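Study this fold:
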Amino acid sequence: MEQRELLLLEKYAAVNPELKELWEDHILYEKLEAKAYRTPTEEQTLKQLKKQKLEGKTRLHAILDGYNEQEGN
Protein backbone atom coordinates (compact mmCIF):
# COMPACT_ATOMS: atom_id res chain seq x y z
CA MET A 1 0.00 0.00 0.00
CA GLU A 2 1.32 3.45 -0.86
CA GLN A 3 2.31 5.98 1.79
CA ARG A 4 -0.50 8.35 0.72
CA GLU A 5 -3.07 5.58 1.21
CA LEU A 6 -1.68 4.74 4.63
CA LEU A 7 -1.97 8.39 5.67
CA LEU A 8 -5.59 8.46 4.49
CA LEU A 9 -6.28 5.28 6.46
CA GLU A 10 -4.84 6.82 9.62
CA LYS A 11 -6.89 9.95 9.13
CA TYR A 12 -10.27 8.45 8.22
CA ALA A 13 -10.43 5.00 9.86
CA ALA A 14 -11.56 6.60 13.12
CA VAL A 15 -14.57 8.24 11.46
CA ASN A 16 -15.45 5.61 8.86
CA PRO A 17 -16.40 2.25 10.42
CA GLU A 18 -16.45 0.44 7.06
CA LEU A 19 -12.95 1.63 6.22
CA LYS A 20 -11.73 0.63 9.69
CA GLU A 21 -13.26 -2.85 9.40
CA LEU A 22 -11.83 -3.43 5.92
CA TRP A 23 -8.37 -2.38 7.08
CA GLU A 24 -8.54 -4.53 10.21
CA ASP A 25 -9.56 -7.54 8.09
CA HIS A 26 -6.62 -6.86 5.78
CA ILE A 27 -4.19 -6.67 8.73
CA LEU A 28 -5.61 -9.85 10.28
CA TYR A 29 -5.28 -11.70 6.98
CA GLU A 30 -1.66 -10.61 6.59
CA LYS A 31 -0.81 -11.66 10.16
CA LEU A 32 -2.48 -15.06 9.85
CA GLU A 33 -0.97 -15.75 6.45
CA ALA A 34 2.53 -15.02 7.77
CA LYS A 35 2.28 -17.46 10.69
CA ALA A 36 4.20 -20.71 10.31
CA TYR A 37 1.64 -22.56 12.45
CA ARG A 38 -2.05 -21.74 12.73
CA THR A 39 -4.65 -23.16 15.08
CA PRO A 40 -7.71 -24.74 13.46
CA THR A 41 -9.70 -21.60 14.35
CA GLU A 42 -7.07 -19.37 12.75
CA GLU A 43 -7.02 -21.60 9.67
CA GLN A 44 -10.79 -21.28 9.32
CA THR A 45 -10.59 -17.50 9.77
CA LEU A 46 -7.85 -17.32 7.14
CA LYS A 47 -9.99 -19.27 4.67
CA GLN A 48 -12.91 -16.89 5.22
CA LEU A 49 -10.67 -13.84 4.87
CA LYS A 50 -9.15 -15.19 1.63
CA LYS A 51 -12.62 -15.32 0.12
CA GLN A 52 -13.29 -11.73 1.17
CA LYS A 53 -9.84 -10.35 0.39
CA LEU A 54 -10.24 -9.27 -3.24
CA GLU A 55 -13.66 -7.73 -2.73
CA GLY A 56 -12.52 -6.00 0.45
CA LYS A 57 -9.34 -4.67 -1.13
CA THR A 58 -11.32 -3.27 -4.06
CA ARG A 59 -13.76 -1.58 -1.67
CA LEU A 60 -10.93 -0.30 0.53
CA HIS A 61 -9.23 1.33 -2.45
CA ALA A 62 -12.51 2.83 -3.66
CA ILE A 63 -13.07 4.48 -0.28
CA LEU A 64 -9.50 5.77 -0.16
CA ASP A 65 -9.79 7.10 -3.73
CA GLY A 66 -12.88 9.03 -2.65
CA TYR A 67 -11.03 10.59 0.27
CA ASN A 68 -8.06 11.33 -1.96
CA GLU A 69 -10.32 13.20 -4.42
CA GLN A 70 -12.04 14.98 -1.54
CA GLU A 71 -8.68 16.30 -0.38
CA GLY A 72 -7.90 17.49 -3.91
CA ASN A 73 -5.04 15.12 -4.70
